[in-house]
Amino acid sequence: MNIDEKTRYDRQVRLWGKSTQQKLRATNVLINGVASAAGEVAKNLALAGVRSIVLNDAGALEPADFYNNFLVQGSSVGDARGKVSSQKLKQLNPFVSVNLVDGDGGVSLDEGPSLRVTVSRIQSTSDALREVGSPRNAAADILLLVADLGRTTLGLFLYRKSGASLSEQLNALLFANTAARPAAFQRALLLMRMRECQEEEHFFKRLVFANTIVTQLGLALLTREDVEFAAGATAAKLCSDAIDATVAGGVFAQLIIHAVGAAGEGEYAWAVSDCSGAATVQVGGAIP
């Protein structure tokens, strides 16, 4: 690092040490979907001083973006989300290389000794399974799947260095031992599974579907109100705000930094942020 970088990163080096900062400086990040908590992760990793960030988001800004995405403030509805986000990230830290890729084709991270981190925004379990199998994420040493579910945000952390494959880790998180996880995790998982049921279906049919998922996965910590809320939840109702995104994005970024400091060996497999009342965050250990 040159003298300007040392000055910029001095306070955080005191927090997590020179070794972690050097590893961050050799870390390349791919962001698939720069919205809400995923956008906050991108912001925090840029401020932390990663080597490069590639944004993969060809979408246009919608009104909801201005409620939960720091990177797009000052822009207008219809502007390219990826483009305005990349401009903001470059302003936040000129020492980080920020590039933009439109669409899914040709997205890759630099090869070599650097660590590769991918952050993908998802909404459902099928999205999660698709991201794990996507060629654009094949090189990732750390894969973070971010599910924005209104006041609840779930992060699933998968590690290349784990004894299990990325697919095996994901299946263990989504389908195994779910009864032992806290209520906030169970609530998030049910909301993700509800994406499999059409929003246009009658509420009673969606309620039956929700109760079936609760029984199948043993989500016994959920209340009747939780299940009824999930049955009535639509994409419009599950719009997060700035507090949701900031809390979740800050926690997720810190867990990534922790894993980078450990050379890609993660200690945590999931984190869930719940801002429905007082903001709470819970984390769970990595899948062996």
Describe the protein in words.
- It is a single chain.
- By secondary structure, this protein is α/β, with parallel strands linked by helices.
- The protein folds into two domains: 3-176 and 239-275, Rossmann fold, CATH 3.40.50.720; 178-237.
- The chain has eleven helices and eight strands.
- It has helices spanning 3-16, 18-24, 36-48, 65-68, 81-92, 125-133, 166-175, 183-193, 203-217, 224-232, 242-261, and strands spanning 27-32, 52-56, 97-101, 115-122, 142-149, 152-159, 268-274, 280-285.
- Strands 3-2-1-4-5-6-7-8 form an eight-stranded mixed sheet, sandwiched between helices.
- The two termini are 35 Å apart.
**Largest beta-sheet details:** 8 strands, mixed
CATH class call of the largest domain: Alpha Beta
Q: Approximately how much beta-strand content do the residues carry?
A: 15-25%
The SS-based structural class is alpha/beta
